[in-house]
Amino acid sequence: MRFRPELHKILHPLLQYSDTRPIRVLAARRRTFDASPMPRPLAAIVTLGCKLNLADSETIARRLQAAGFAVVDRLCEADAFVLNTCSVTHVADAKSRRLVRAARRLSPDATVAVTGCYPRSAGNDAAFALGADVVGGTGDSDKAILVAALAERVSTAAPARPVPAAAFHTRSFIKAQEGCNDVCAFCIVPRTRGREQSRPVAVVVADVEAAVVAGAREVVITGTQLGAWGRDLRTELRPHHLIAGLLASTDVPRIRFSSLQPQDITPELLALWQDPRLMPHFHLALQSGSDAILSAMHRRYTARDFIEAAARIRAAVPDAAITTDVIAAFPGETDADFEATLALCREAGFARVHCFPYSRRSRTAAATMASQVAEPVKKDRLARLMTLADDLSVAFRRRFEGSVRPVLWEAPRRLGDTISSFGHTDNYIPVYSPEPRPANRLTATQLGPVYHDGVRGFAPEGDV
């Protein structure tokens, strides 16, 4: 954690402070309100990147609320900003830089805190040069110090602002694990997130219980390398032990577990999906369908391993959505390698594919590899991959046309020129309905034809 010089004297006593205990206070991504008759300073938390960043932002939001802030989860005029950044690609770096500059322009006198992966990859000085007042990493102690820094500066230097209306969020992101010991050739995350650290079952359970008390109907259990959960604990455990503990010790209606790799899809894990509270949705990161490229990436599975893992999921959870990540144009990728990736995607029948062009990252093995793919070829492959991804997504959604599935309704979304009710099925199909649906309610809903990027939802059959 780094501060501008005037902050260091104030915060020096906190530098050794570490608090990993869950705070049982309302998470900002679910609801924002200001019931106090006295105005409170407003903090805007903006999150880029992965679900793990969303979980970190929720933790920061709870701590800021406990410190007396009103919190919103978007860019607006504010007394303080927490900008939770991403550095997974050079595009993510650019978005992070633009976000810091935008916050500084929007509220020049606000205190700007930058956290997440960007300062870990680019360096703290790069964030200060953009206009940050406080720069922190991704650890729990960093979050505590960041909140103390904002509380100190805002209480003495900034006026409170009106709290704008905020969206209602039904899903809470809960961190179970941090860090990664793998060294994939393309990935900078082990440098920005550190070594693997699992949070004990009791700590994760406590966070889930707090989310339920605050009103969440669904939790997403996340981590940098979630399949590694438990192997660093004093008594070595596996992800199915964590899931079993959550099912036994909480009453949250919906649990998502994201994400895993093929070697993590064990019989013990899949057996737990007999419980309807576990959502039929598995995110398995593919990256490439070519064994040669998977080996060059230092991935720990083959294309056949991946297909077999997907088959095990389909056998155990027939209606499951399987989503994935794929990188186009990794160094050395030939036309045949790319065609193998397209073929595997078709065979797997993914419900959604997150497509990325390879991004050259300094301090990674792939950055110095020969045979970097030319930009025109990279763009062409990415376009073909995205077209296939759209086709696969439409095909998956059409499988369920006319069926009735549980939908958790969230905040409304704009669809064209109108505002539409919006939610997700248990198997993660986005559902739009022109009729008003109460947010944070689970209803059995008939699914209609493909509609925008989801499906049209017809009149609910009743609460679930």
In short:
The protein has 464 residues and is an alpha/beta fold. Helices cover 35% and strands 22% of the residues.
What features would you describe in this structure?
This protein has 4 domains: 2-157, Rossmann fold (3-Layer(aba) Sandwich); 170-258, Transcription Regulator spoIIAA (2-Layer Sandwich); 283-399, Transcription Regulator spoIIAA (2-Layer Sandwich), CATH 3.30.750; 404-463, OB fold (Dihydrolipoamide Acetyltransferase, E2P). Residues 3-37 have low confidence and may be disordered. The protein contains 14 helices and 19 strands. With 464 residues, it is α/β, with parallel strands linked by helices. The radius of gyration is 22 Å and the shape is globular. The strands form 4 sheets. A 6-stranded mixed beta sheet has the order 1-6-5-4-2-3, sandwiched between helices. The protein has a 5-stranded mixed beta barrel with strand order 14-16-17-19-18. Helix 2 crosses helix 6 (140-157), helix 8 (201-213) crosses helix 9 and helix 13 (335-348) runs parallel beside helix 14. Strand 2 (42-47), helix 2 and strand 3 form a beta-alpha-beta unit. The longest helix has 24 residues, at 375-398. It starts with a strand and ends with a strand.
